[in-house]
Amino acid sequence: MKKIIIQIYEIQTPEEAGLLIDAGVDNIGSVVRFESEWKDTRVKETVELVKKSGRTSSLIPLFNNLDTLFNTIDYYQPDIIHFCEIIADQTGINPDCLKLIDLQKKVKAGFPEIKIMRSIPIAQFPKGSLIPSLEAAKMFEPVSDYFLTDTLILHKSDNTGNYSQPENGFVGITGITCDWDTAAKLVEASKIPVILAGGINPDNLIQGIIKTKPWGIDSCTGTNKLDSSGVPVRFKKDMKKVMQMVELVRNYEKSLK
Predict the structure, then answer these.
(1) Is 153 helix (H, G, I), strand (E, B) or coil?
(2) Which residues, listed in sequence order, are joined to residue 83 by a DSSP beta bridge?
(3) 201 and 214 in contact (C-beta within 8 Å)?
(4) Which partner for 127 in 11, 123, 135, 137 could form a disulfide, CB atoms 3.0-4.6 Å apart?
């Protein structure tokens, strides 16, 4: 079988990136959270180290102003630019999708050497059918190089589509698994590689791989350190979990040979 790509977010320092490189992680992702603070020398050092090591760097900008976005891409020069706006929810396709598709076209034209990853929101199990995830993916497939599934939290008491997410307006870092039935359908239907994300941790990743057959597997919250209350600490990796994840995936690959 082909190698399963292992991707880990959110890595903001070269020191932590170095540990992940040594652990055998393939894709190392960072995030630029604020448009007003788009230039972060530590994140730039992180991206540069990842690229120098021969691994793949991925960068999420939590904004989509075209001028700032172009400045950001030019400054960091990641291998992958990763967009994760909420492009669909329980009310249907986001009306801004056409603008976001046009944005990706402009990014590809301006930076043809940089790949584009697009997060596809999928509700938590068993609510996958409530979001038109596959329809949204079909719209973005022509302007994307990779898809990444991620969990959009739907609350029982809220039917408006205005769901509270960890990052307002964006999908991800929930620590909750997405509906794998929908994720598997996306993998089957997609013409581009799909990375399975959303609540992935060492305890469930093999089950997720078997169920969905993705090109890669991604973890953020599920490999973070925990505070004294057992709550994941953002931007702090538990290297034991990361190494366990790498070992599990590589052993699974060997078992199929």
Answers:
(1) coil
(2) 118
(3) no
(4) 123
Buried b (16+ CB within 10 A) or exposed e, 11-40: bbebebbbbbbebebbbbbbbbbeeeebeb
CA 146 from centroid of its chain's CA atoms = 10
3-state secondary structure of 213: coil
User: Alpha-carbon distance 25 to 8, whole Å?
Assistant: 7
Confidence of residue 163 (pLDDT cuts 50, 70, 90): low
pTM value surpassing 0.90 = yes
pLDDT tens-digit readout, 29-61: 999 999 999 999 999 999 999 999 999 999 999
What are residue 196's DSSP bridge partners?
217
For Cα atoms 29, 32, 37, give the angle at the middle one, nearest 5 degrees. Answer: 155
**Domains of the chain with bracketed CATH:** 5-255 (3.20.20.70)
Q: How far apart are CA 95 and CA 92, in angstroms?
A: 9
Whether the pLDDT of residue 121 is over 90: the answer is: yes
Q: DSSP state, 257?
A: -
